[in-house]
Specification:
heterodimer; A: MetI-like fold; 2 domains; two-stranded antiparallel ribbon; 13 helices; flat; B: alpha/beta; 7-stranded mixed sheet; 3-stranded mixed sheet; 14 strands
Chain lengths: 313, 437
């Protein structure tokens, strides 16, 4: 890395010498050399892949006739594709319901641990966080067996109670996936909130206690406001995460039948099946870009809204 | 601008392919000579583990050739990798494995070598007719069959006996009666399961003379209304309507294994390759399972269908075609075949299907039945003339989508599902440059 930097510097100063100019431009060029390593990485890791996706999204790869340049036809087709909307509406609904439940639970758990009134809070913290360390593939298999109606836990409960509740019917599959995701990510979010709470100076609590504040008032006026910025971060992470839902539904299709999971169940699954079973890579690239822009727009809106409220306070 | 240029390029490419076809079709083809003076390395993409058994023998015959057998993924994974390699123009294997239904996908756009120039046509008589039909497109062989899946009925004898079915059903009418008796055992007992498996339904169509797909070059016709197909659809609809088939169990799932073990799934209508995996899946049912031919539409008929199987082809972009063909012929037809059969491959070569040693094999799991005899007969009986549309790989996934409402929540009928499927396939096929009706 440092050698690269040096060569940059020398070549840059050669150029500067040619121009016969002295201090000012030289200093500017040194600055350029410093950002060069980052710029090169940024170019190849971020700009080029996105640019390439945009490029292939304007082609159709036909089985007969090969690659055809079609301008924005893939995008036009995408906005008329009911299967695409089906997946988008599903993940938006999922996000609207699952994310608040998960974050609310995570805040409650973080407050509980931070209250210092629990025994074994360290053990508790690790246990709640543990599901995050389990790969989604493994946890889906595990939940699939547990919620399975034929031989799983739910199957036994149904048998004992004489009911016929099915967690993997077309109407309930999304709820089951919500349970899996909540289980997997609550601990992770809890840790973020817990870290934010730990950063609150303890003197504030003492001062509040001296002023006669109740525990509830401390939560309301000190702890919750302290969580604001981490809440925005977790909301953005969660939105991005749920919009990219893929592993859980994809594995469930091989595990249970009649779950209602189609090849376009989520936008990610749709992109995958377009690219790999339909060999419509261009169309899949268009879908991926549209979803990326959609996700960024929502995440950005959350951030703006969060910041505005923060300043109003 | 690029649109037109692409078209021109495509036209040129097509004519080059056509010319190449002429060249390799002629008799004066020096490129069929296997070079002996220079070292050659052949790369074979195969997810069939038995291929490597034939390598040592071949390398002894051709000391200058080294064969690398690579598993580049199964099915779609391999096809994607192959397509990428062909587009990139590098890393294309000398031999690649294909499921029968995926051959047209590569053969029709000219991505595979026509093997006529190597004398492959002379091998036709050595295979069961339907298997040869699978690798022949427009009268040109594009691959050699490497394994085979005649559709058969695996049945749990003790469950059928318990249900009062003395002999395994030999006609679909008997199958229907047996289904009712098995269902009468109560609980979760079903004669079989079906969770939107298009191959089961296609077996029934295929056996009864239904030919829903007609392919002629890039012209594809889809029609599920021919007598053979509609009879199959009506029959299966009856089983679904009367709750005689378990639609809640999908093949390859844990539930499936348990059903096979417990005997709550009394039969499986599946390919002959099932012999290699059933004993591991259902160890508790050891000794109970037997193999029988697919039930017939009319008593006394001996028709059959196919469920699975694959072939090996030489990509058009392969480097060492002559050497590749030499190895291809060696392990699918020549002296290397026996080593693969010994390792468990089920092949459609008549030399094997008539081999007494192969036919007399028994397995205590199947109650010491001579199961290969049944499967060999089933292979020879497979009805000919079936065609897969070139985009069948896509269509199979699409079928799961369109049939979901029927299997999940009993909305609609099988005939309606097939109609929707047909419409989607027409749309997709035309988009992909075929002419589909």
């Amino acid at each position: 890395m440092s050698r690269q930097l040096l060569t940059h510097q020398t070549s840059v100063s050669d150029v500067a010498a040619d121009h016969q100019t002295l201090r000012k431009p030289k200093r500017r060029n040194v600055g350029l050399a410093f950002i060069a390593p980052f710029s090169v990485l940024f170019l190849f890791v971020f700009i080029v892949p996105i640019g390439y996706s945009a490029y292939i999204s304007m082609f159709q790869n036909k089985l007969i006739g090969g690659k055809v340049f079609i301008w924005f036809d893939n995008y036009i087709k995408l906005f008329q594709d009911s299967q695409f909307y089906d997946g988008v509406i599903r993940v938006v609904l999922f996000t609207a319901i699952q994310v608040p439940i998960m974050l609310f639970s995570a805040i409650a758990l973080a407050l509980a641990i931070d209250s210092l009134r629990l025994h074994g809070s360290r053990f508790f913290r690790i246990i709640v966080f543990l599901p995050y360390a389990i790969p989604a593939i493994v946890s889906t298999l595990m939940w699939g067996f547990m919620l399975g109606i034929r031989y799983g836990l739910i199957g036994s409960l149904n048998k004992a109670a004489g009911t016929s509740f099915n967690p993997f019917a077309p109407e309930t599959t999304m709820i089951s996936i919500g349970v899996m995701v909540t289980w997997g990510f609550t601990g992770y979010n809890m840790l973020i909130f817990y870290a934010a709470l730990r950063a609150v100076p303890r003197e504030l609590y003492e001062a509040a206690a001296i002023d006669g504040a109740t525990e509830f008032q401390i939560v309301r006026h000190i702890k919750l406001p302290a969580l604001r910025s981490s809440l925005i971060v977790t909301i953005i992470f969660s939105i991005i995460g749920t919009f990219q839902l893929f592993n859980e539904p994809n594995i469930l299709t091989t595990l249970v039948s009649n779950s209602g999971i189609t090849s376009y169940y989520t936008p990610n699954m749709y992109a995958y099946s377009l690219a790999f079973t339909g060999s419509q890579q261009g169309y899949a690239a268009a879908l991926a870009l549209v979803m990326a822009i959609f996700t960024i727009a929502i995440a950005y809106a959350v951030q703006i809204k969060g910041m505005k409220n923060a300043f109003n306070k | 601008m690029p649109k037109r240029r692409m078209r021109v390029a495509a036209a040129i490419a097509a004519s080059v392919v056509a010319l190449a076809g002429c060249a390799s079709g002629g008799n004066t083809s020096p490129n069929t000579e296997v070079p002996t003076d220079q070292p050659i390395t052949l790369t074979v993409w195969s997810w069939d583990g038995t291929v490597k058994e034939a390598v040592p023998g071949f390398e002894k015959l051709h000391p200058n050739i080294t064969v690398n057998v690579v598993n580049a993924g199964s099915s779609t994974d391999e096809y994607t990798a192959l397509d990428n390699a062909i587009q990139a123009g590098s890393g294309v294997p000398d031999i690649a494995m294909f499921e029968y239904f995926s051959l047209p996908l590569f053969a029709i756009p000219g991505k595979l070598t026509d093997l006529s120039g190597f004398g492959a046509k002379d091998l036709a008589k050595d295979y069961v007719d339907a298997a040869w039909g699978n690798v022949t497109i427009d009268d040109k062989p594009y691959a050699l069959p490497s394994d085979y899946g005649p559709a058969a009925m695996f049945y749990n004898q003790s469950v059928l006996t318990q249900a009062g079915v003395a002999a395994p059903p030999t006609t679909w009418e008997e199958f229907y009666q047996a289904a009712k008796k098995v269902r009468a055992l109560g609980g979760d007992h079903y004669i079989t399961n079906d969770s939107a498996d298009i191959f089961v339904l296609m077996s029934l169509m295929w056996e009864g003379g239904g030919r829903p797909f007609k392919v002629n070059g890039t012209d594809v016709t889809i029609d599920f209304k021919d007598p053979g197909s509609s009879r199959a659809v009506a029959f299966w609809q009856k089983l679904l309507d009367e709750d005689l088939v378990n639609t809640k169990i999908t093949n390859w799932s844990d539930d499936w294994n348990r059903g096979l073990n417990e005997g709550t799934l009394a039969t499986q209508l599946i390919g002959g390759w099932f012999t290699s995996t059933l004993p591991e899946r259902a160890p508790q049912a050891a000794g109970n399972f037997r193999v029988a031919p697919l039930p017939q539409w009319e008593a006394g008929e001996t028709s059959g269908a196919e469920n699975g199987g694959s072939a090996m082809a030489i990509p058009a972009a392969a480097q060492n075609k002559a050497a590749a063909y030499a190895f291809l012929e060696y392990f699918t037809h020549g002296d290397g075949l026996q080593s693969r059969i010994d390792a468990g491959a089920f092949v459609p070569n008549l030399s094997n299907l008539n081999n007494e040693k192969f036919l007399s094999a028994t397995n205590p799991f199947f109650g010491d039945q001579k199961y290969n005899q049944v499967l060999a007969d089933a292979s020879k009986n497979v009805a000919t003339g079936w065609q897969y549309p070139p985009f069948f790989g896509w269509a199979r996934t699409s079928y799961e989508d369109v049939s979901a409402p029927l299997y999940d929540s009993k909305q609609g009928t099988l005939a309606e599902v097939l109609e929707t499927w047909k419409q989607r396939s027409i749309e997709y096929g035309n988009e992909q440059g075929f002419s589909v009706r």
